[in-house]
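User: Can you help me understand a structure? I only have the sequence.
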Amino acid sequence: MSKSAFAEKSKADELLEGLDDNQREAVCSLSGPVRILAGAGAGKTRTITRRIAYAVKTGNWDPQKTLAVTFSVKAAGEMRKRLSALGLEDKTQINVATFHSAALRQLRMVWRDVAESPFPHVVEDAHRLAFSAAKTVTCKDDYSHMEVRDILAEINRTKVSLINPDSYAYVCERTKRVPPAGLEPDTMSQIIKNYEMSKTALNQIDFDDILLIVCHIIREFPQCAEKICKNIAYLSVDEYQDVSPLQHRLMRMWLGLKEEKAKPKKSDMPSVCVVGDPGQTIYSFAGATSWYLLDFVNEFAPISADLRLDRDYRSTPQVINYANKILKSSPLSEDYLSLVTVRENGKRISRTVYKNDFEEAASVSAKIKNLLRSGVSADDIAVLMRINAQARPVAAEFRKAQIPFQIRKNPAFDSAGYMFDADDFKLFGSGDSKENNDVNSAAARSSDTKFSLGRVTISSIHAAKGLEWKHVFLIGCSEGLIPYGFIRDAQTLEEERRLLYVGVTRAEDVLNLSYAQAKNIDGAANRRPSRFLT
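Assistant: Let's start by predicting it. Here is the structure, written out as tokens:
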């Protein structure tokens, strides 16, 4: 071995330092299909980035043919930052992107090979298009903003679930799904068709159209498929529990599996690694499913490695034991990881009952004020809740107490900044068009990844996923809030259980659970504790 080769191997071996046995095995499993089940606080991002860096530095992977996919711009940025810190300074070497960002660049690359028309524009106002479609089909023009929002969400969900509009009513019948806004299945089917026709007439596409079109191009245009897929020899997919059927289809096509049920040949197994946690599947309402994560060992059998990262480095034993109990009570408990804490004992979990929401907000505000006075940083404190509306009384009390705060709301799945990097938007249209400026403004608003120092976070649990704080106040732990509303089916109820689990595992040191017996000061005390509390 030459001196330079020996030096490179030594640098690569340094990437294995400080890893536990399971993390080390994951980093060193570089070929064939690999599944990594990674629990909350188990060092998932650290393991993924070291695995990529180790593969490149040992010469096993060509960085130019490496694609790492994650679900938000913030997560992609963090991954790039860590890869750079690990010695992969050239950010152009490895493609780290969201599904939509990666597909957009691929679509732009081959567009002139498959179409003579100009590259389509992104939908400027999907809400308006959805309203127009509903109005045209039903001859009704008094839909509320929330009804139109729900109609648009149903359109998007249908698309990512690969449900043809002509099959929509049949799917509703078989799955007992109830369309939004009081619509009948056949009517909703017509609204979906009208929405798509209107969009096409305007030469516009929405974000999920990008994935659909790339899938179509890979299937129907071999030369374009070669151009797209030749740069994807080593694929890593993070948050795999949240992929939709559409994203799953695109991933398979990237790997050269064009047929829906085709299995790779044993002699030609793709180098694909999926990472996820079934217990953190909380976006089923948007078409996500943990089925692909759970079935990966069958879909790509025989896989090279099936690993578990179940050692939690984030939270105290009190928090982890409580989180484990939440999932252990589930009828699907065998699908979930049971975390093992490595930290020393911390403070016990507090559970408090208040008379109403305003008393709860005032008490939480007072407790946080005392924490700040004792020297705790505001950045280390969060108030989490099931729905955005719960933030109002808390924010009002914070203003009274002059507590600095920031509010994080549920991420929008069709929000530009959630799916794309800022540079991607220059690919839509040309020059300084109004459409281009509008999209860039939307991206800037929705990709708020840099938070001001010294602020308490008020957040929905959905928006808090992937984050953690030393002190967490989880409010509204009552029936009707979590689980939210009147739950009719077991699948939705299970998602609510997982949502509470995600909220609990955001806490590093101290967890405070609470609920109010009534919503208003003069309201009846008709609330009871959430069935998920242990």
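Now, to help you interpret it: The longest strand covers residues 507-518. Residues 438 and 494 are 38 Å apart (CA to CA). Let me know which part you'd like to focus on.
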